Amino acid sequence: MFIQLNCFNYRLFVYFAPMEENLKYSKHIFICTNQRPANAPRPSCGEEHGLALTVAFKKAINDYHLDVPIRAQKAGCIDLCESGPTVVVYPDGVFYGNVQLNDVQEIVDEHIVKGRPVERLQLKFKRA
Length: 128
Fold this sequence. Notes:
Largest sheet: 4 strands, mixed
Order of helices and strands: EEEHEEEH
Helix content: 10-25%
Distance between the termini: 33 Å
Radius of gyration: 15 Å
Strand content: 15-25%
Number of domains: 1
Shape: globular
Strand order of the largest sheet: 4-3-5-6
CATH topology: Glutaredoxin
CATH superfamily: Glutaredoxin
Structural class: alpha+beta
Number of strands: 6
């Protein structure tokens, strides 16, 4: 489904998959902000600017003034610590790794608005 938006004197056509009736949000973005002690054996997304990523995602989404419900929020451990900071977008089930602050706008522009996951950041998993 495409939605026409007039934003900042530009006409945008934004793609959104049809929203299932039982979903509260069209897209739900979880940003890992888990923090571990300094001597922990695994890295920590929270130490790698997880909270700053959350703020950046919220700002980027709000800047679009979209008419569909999208939420970005901090999350506990996503258990992909070695690939962190990690972000997951539902209902798509797309996981992103090593997300930096300068990647946020690209993820919002390409994935959230246009419906095209950002391949260079996407984590791929093999099913057993």
